[in-house]
Amino acid sequence: MINRKAIGYITANYTGEAVSVLTDVRPIASIPFMGRYRLIDFPLSNMANAGIKTVGLVMPGNYRSIIDHVGHGKDWMLDRKKGGLFPLPGNPYGTTKRGMRFLLRDIISNKMLFERSDKPYVVMMGSNIIFNLDLNAIIDAHEFSGAGITMVYVRAERKHTDCSSLVIGDSGRVQQVKQGCEFGDNKFMDCFIINRDLLLQIIDRYQSADYLDLFEAIAGDFSLIDVCSYEFKGLAIGIFNERTYYARSMEMLNPDVADQLFRKDRPIMTKAHDAPPAKYSAGSNATNSLISAGCQVDGTVRGSILARGVVVESGASVTNSIIMQSCVVKTGARVENAIIDKGNVIPANTELRGTPDAILVVGKNQMPA
């Protein structure tokens, strides 16, 4: 299936205000999730499932991990002679405002992507609010409405300081975009559809305001542009810092929650790896956990997420933790309420323990050899 109506544009170069060792070596978009995915997999898969075959990906300065993961887009069916995945130059955000994901400077810099397209619409997404939706239904609703922009929102299930919220009038038109949202507000999902011709007009009209986010720049012209809204009734997970990353990951251990994000009719695609199935030795114990291919479990794993190639040796235990790729938990070691980034070896008889309110985070290759 090829979508004849839209091209895609994904921003991956913004940073959050929260400092974390998890993003010292990678952008937010390439943070591992659920053992085998990266956050960037979700916007790419949403577009691939809708048949969008031309996608621009705005790259951060530390782009190596994203390029290593997405390559030419083969795993999302974007390695094509016509169209395909286009890595785009991104501008440094510096100290950014919360909720600022669509820097006008980036859009202006990559004007050629939109000029060369013959599709009438552009689907724009961020990377750290993840969801699984039917983009074709939203594109059709946008076309039917006759609006210039359609912004996708969901009812906020909790307070979010890093999200934006929409003030929506009786006609479903967006009147204002506000920073932050409270429980029950209309949480903007960093997903919207814009008419390509309108986007090119905005690029020409707002050159002098290129330091602003797109929606900051056009705030005074909402009534003229006709900004419509579309309510998504599924699951939308925001990951902005270590606390939300840990909490949302642990929620995925509930099959009823995970099934809302991982659907058979709209699969989430990721980079293919050739790895053997996880191996469980006699006497090992694994309960309520997600354990990826290539893992070896000789000890105990409870309520945890293990990425590819993790080894838990005999007598070791991992509880309520996220262990990333190629880590080794040696005999007698204890890990609890922790996030352990890739490549760490936890020495024998060592205890790494956080609390549910203060998760212990160990950065990539930080444990002494």
TrEMBL record:
Pfam families registered for this protein in UniProt: Hexapep_GlmU (PF24894), NTP_transferase (PF00483)
Class of enzymatic activity (EC top level): transferase
Which residue range or ranges hold the Glucose-1-phosphate adenylyltransferase/Bifunctional protein GlmU-like C-terminal hexapeptide domain? 283-351
Alphabetized UniProt keyword annotations = Glycogen biosynthesis, Nucleotidyltransferase, Transferase
Q: Does the keyword Nucleotidyltransferase apply?
A: yes
Question: Which EC number(s) are documented for this chain?
Answer: 2.7.7.27
A GO biological process of this protein is: glycogen biosynthetic process
Which terms in the Gene Ontology molecular function aspect does this entry carry? glucose-1-phosphate adenylyltransferase activity
| Signal sequence region | none
Domain Nucleotidyl transferase as annotated: residue spans: 22-175
**Family listed:** Belongs to the bacterial/plant glucose-1-phosphate adenylyltransferase family.
PANTHER family assigned: GLUCOSE-1-PHOSPHATE ADENYLYLTRANSFERASE-RELATED (PTHR43523), GLYCOGEN BIOSYNTHESIS PROTEIN GLGD (PTHR43523:SF6)
Q: What is this protein called?
A: Glucose-1-phosphate adenylyltransferase subunit GlgD
Q: Which organism is it from?
A: Enorma phocaeensis
